[in-house]
Amino acid sequence: MKRKKQEIANYKKHPKQICFGSSKLFKAQYTKEEYINNHQKWRENYLHQRNKQMIIQGRRQGKYGNNLFKYELDSNTMIYRGINETIYLPIQFYYQKELLEEKVKLIHNTPGKAICYVLELSRDYFIIKAILELPEKETTTTKAEGVVGIDINVDHIALTVTNEHGNIIGTKKINYRLKRKTSNQRLWILREVSKEVINICKQHQKTLIIENLNFTYKKQQMKYNKKRVNEVLSNFAYTKIIETIESRAYKEDVAVERVNPAYTSKIGKEKYQQSKGLSTHLAASYVIARRGMSFSD
């Protein structure tokens, strides 16, 4: 009770705060000379950063896949019908334009018809991005002659290649460093890592097996870790690396399957680490690969 009362007192004294527009830019008004002497300039930049993006959710009901924005194919015009006025925006999509037009032409209430639009303000102009549900593709990889299993960690990916009998034919450790990197630098690093993983799958013509991780549970565990460990975990984009790997796999026609991650590290450590001469994480990736091939350990 004493500890809980102390926590409540601390929250009242130092309430939790959220900063929209990046905390780094918010603090810059007190640390950068250009903003210390010119608060109006800081305010303009801060409000721009805070309000520069808007997401309009799509719906498969309706003719255009979105209730607010309607993309006219014949005139290449985006139409926004507001309460007081209608706005016409001339627009030209380049990447995956054919797929976007195909989605717009789908019949009302067809699964996959919903189109989400993202608006980004870049000072002098708007950038409009369309987010679509991609159709399923035939893959060029199989599990008949083995798979590639990966174990994702804070600073590296442990990778194991197996044959048709579930035995190891190759291992690899792919290192990366995300700490003290900007968001763009992290994204570039993760893309390079995903490219290397998918290239190995293509080289061996094998399906990629990954863990179906529960990130909510993993983040809940952070409260019991040391501060140094939490700093590393919070900087590690668990979800982002899986997204980049699956995105790359889709482009390269590589099949990806998720398996239950329960006890993979423990089984790998007790059953395969010493007998196979593997590290803890490589042993875990081996268990993940075998689980993807429906072998029981």
From TrEMBL:
Keywords noted in UniProt = DNA-binding
Q: Which organism is it from?
A: Breznakia pachnodae
The protein here is known as: IS605 OrfB family transposase
Domain of life according to the entry: Bacteria
